[in-house]
């Protein structure tokens, strides 16, 4: 037995032994990741049938160390594919180096038929409950590890700062603390899962760094972010995940401050490696080395693009459809521009990842535990996450919950759709076709029928509403009169699935036909309930007055329709809170932690008279969300004590459920700093806690901190000590203190 084959030795020692036995070609092959379409029978993503001749050529002759992706097929199909693929590498290659398979299991094992599909990230953010993120990571690993998927390209740790961005729904929201708590919980659930032994699964933090805040709002377009803001906001969630043991990171496909991240030595090596201490594998996103040549235009040819990205610090190139990376790497070594020592740095990390995951001892999948996939207890966790993610934004005259309705009229593009509930990255890249979703999965229509078995659920197609826009026409009057026979009108609107650049839009408003429909239905005497199935906050400012109640359901996943129905009925008391600021206007939107100077007004009668404004840019602020009961806050106190020469503050507040039923209140603690060398946000979330309360129950909630907790980074990331006046806020209460 050679040292690298000895499982008793440390991973680092095994890595060094194997590295010195490898040829240059074998090393370069380990840095290459190719797509499944190069090794299947048809070249289509959904074809999970291995062409062994193609796979053997790429693994044995080009030493490819990683493949990726596919679409949702049954577990036994994935098993057959992965079993043959992994055996070629482990049993037929010269050194027996196992492949590592990467896959877009984003909110559950989404590319596996019959799996448990959780709500998307933005919904998990709305729960303000890290345990739901932990369950998502843990159950994803539980269901995918046995079929040979040991590298999941999740979670997204970007901040949801720009609501136009089409990947907004993959984030946990706009706040770095919330993203950090949920992101580290997801990573822990996925990477520390003993139930999948002898296998392990690696999470991937993405997309480092600043990807989610492009100036245009469109995917893969430039971001201009001061380094101070990068340190204070964008870096934080990644840092926490790294500190929690995150093994791999995927890069931002766009550019930051004029430099594509895939070519930025400052960001990849300087910030990520040297400052943040990340020693895992850095992988590119899809064909992003080539984009340096034909999209960003920083490289004249592919070889120059390869040089830029490798010298910036990438470890593995998601090529993914050619061997150009291998060819260019050989050219660069032969010309002396890239040394073999530089290649060793990356290959060392890749091999160590494979050793750490136990792939050398357990390279092959197994097919004797498939009953774990889609288990009832797993689906129950997904349902609970979906229920707690739904945000009640408006409830005029206690329209909800619905009280024993006899007739419900249901409208909108999501009334009978399964795919709309899930969004992109579900079954397929842009969301699978409707017929590919589970037969037993509920739509909103079928979930309502089950929740209200004695009610008649009447679904009206979009065609019925066409031509009825003309106010006071006989046809419109007759239709509105018809609606008076119903107890409730529900419009299930929002968006159809998309992801990445396919979801770029130029108008944040709901589509015109939906706006027209809501306006029409709002004229009826029967209350109108708007249910928003969407991946980002489409503008509803002009529509909200037509509604009696509004639910933001986001993208709640396979259990989403049942979650919506149970909230509408009151079986579940809504507890979701917005993890982002819901914009009011199309051209001016800000996160809750904006600067004071972002909002101001002037007196037109006084020249140059600019005053601080209080007018909000959010239709619904960060943290908004109603319940079917009410909560009161009282007795806010703040006590300081000296512990070993350090001042520690403990804040206390009593939270009471003043309603007549049980519910959950998300207690948010914000801190505002009056002055700072660098202008400070109006407030920042510093602690949160989800508190279950019975009717009439009171609980004391606490938040402990030191002044050092409120230090902030300067332009180069060095901490600035806090001093001066501060305000602590929770509920509608506040108290001041000085540092």
Please describe what this structure looks like.
The strands form nine sheets. Strands 11-16-15-14-12-13 form a six-stranded mixed beta sheet, sandwiched between helices. Helix 15 (444-451) packs across helix 19. The protein contains 19 helices and 29 strands. It is an alpha/beta fold.
Largest sheet: 6 strands, mixed
Q: Based on DSSP secondary structure assignment, what is the total number of beta strands?
A: 29
Uncertain stretches: none
Rg, Å, rounded: 27 Å
**Helical element count?**
19
Calculate the terminal CA-CA distance, rounded to whole Å: 62 Å
Structural class: alpha/beta
Helix content percent band = 25-40%
Strand residues, percent: 15-25%
Brief overview:
By secondary structure, the protein is of the alpha/beta class. It is built from 19 helices and 29 strands. The strands form 9 sheets. The chain has a 6-stranded mixed sheet, with helices on both faces. Strands 4-3-2-1-10 form a 5-stranded parallel sheet. The chain has a 4-stranded antiparallel sheet with strand order 24-23-28-29, with no helix packed on it.
Defining key terms:
739 residues, alpha/beta, 6-stranded mixed sheet, 5-stranded parallel sheet, 19 helices, globular
Task: Produce the secondary structure layout.
Layout: H1 11-21, H2 24-30, E1 32-35, H3 52-61, E2 66-68, H4 75-92, E3 100-103, H5 121-127, H6 130-144, E4 151-152, H7 176-191, E5 204-208, H8 227-243, E6 248-251, E7 255-256, E8 259-260, H9 265-275, E9 281-283, H10 288-294, H11 302-312, E10 317-318, H12 324-334, H13 340-356, H14 376-389, E11 391-395, E12 407-411, H15 444-451, E13 456-459, H16 462-465, H17 474-483, E14 488-494, H18 512-521, E15 528-533, E16 549-554, H19 560-569, E17 582-583, E18 600-602, E19 610-612, E20 618-620, E21 631-643, E22 646-657, E23 663-673, E24 684-693, E25 698-705, E26 712-713, E27 719-720, E28 725-730, E29 733-738
Parallel strand pairs: 1-2, 1-10, 2-3, 3-4, 5-6, 6-9, 12-13, 12-14, 14-15, 15-16
Antiparallel strand pairs: 7-8, 11-16, 17-20, 18-19, 21-22, 22-25, 23-24, 23-28, 26-27, 28-29
